[in-house]
Amino acid sequence: MYDFTTFLSRLSGRTKENYNYTLRLWAKWCDAHGIDVATATRQNIEEWIAERRAMVQPRTTKTDIGLLHGFYKWLAETGVRLDIPTMGIRRPRSGRSERPWLGRLDALRLLEAVPHWRGGELEPQVRLWLLSGLRPGEPRALQVGDLQEHDGMPALRVKATKTPGTEIIAIPESTADVLKRWASEKNERDFLLTNPATGAPWGKAAEGNSFRALVAHAGLPPVTPSSLRVSFVTLAIQAGLPEYEVSIAARHASSAQTAYYERLRDQADNPVGPILEDWLIQTPSPAPQPTPFRIDV
Fold it and tell me: Most CB within 10 Å of its CB: which of 111, 112, 131, 137?
């Protein structure tokens, strides 16, 4: 099977996992058909994609094509081949994500319920997912020393799961207060968030089970931590924040590369999380009532 080690060594986190999974599927298909991965043609790729379409959703097929394109583009850039065989391959239309998300009133209900449920054991995570757009596993990796300040504003250093290194994001004062309570009597390198039932850092399964129970307790439709990230993006745009700033705050891979270096400045000058919280807690205006129709006699 083709050795993707050199290509994958440039990547990290979830991105590396996704590439590794898809490229191994592709290499296995190539081996079964006597095809060299490095010299595969567009026709070969089209045949594999046609088979994949019968087994997976259009969104997955679209992702497969994108990952293969990234690999063959790298081969061309490094001089292994002269062309990029994925150029011109049409990606299926997948539409918007169907992942559920919370509207404004449901988001408020969750924020109001979480401090009083099981002693607020998930309050930090819910706030970080919903008000700062962290990815599901990122709060679990936080250390006490990651809680910082920037220009007098509370900030958080987050170990990125999509790109190498760390990123700094601004967080609401209320979130910082919650995190400081969890950080008390801990050392800088200790995990910031721990499971009160065990005293150990949260595990994915335990955190997920606890979150599902919280959602049911709050009387909300079934959502996941990823749903809260979707809610963060959707509600922030609905609150009137520029899409460019929200995209940077969410650390989307589709942002311009220069945005990677602008994140700290933009988060400090236009902190999405605090503005979103202020917008959420405003009393929603009542719906306008229709003027009754009158006939003067």
Answer: 131
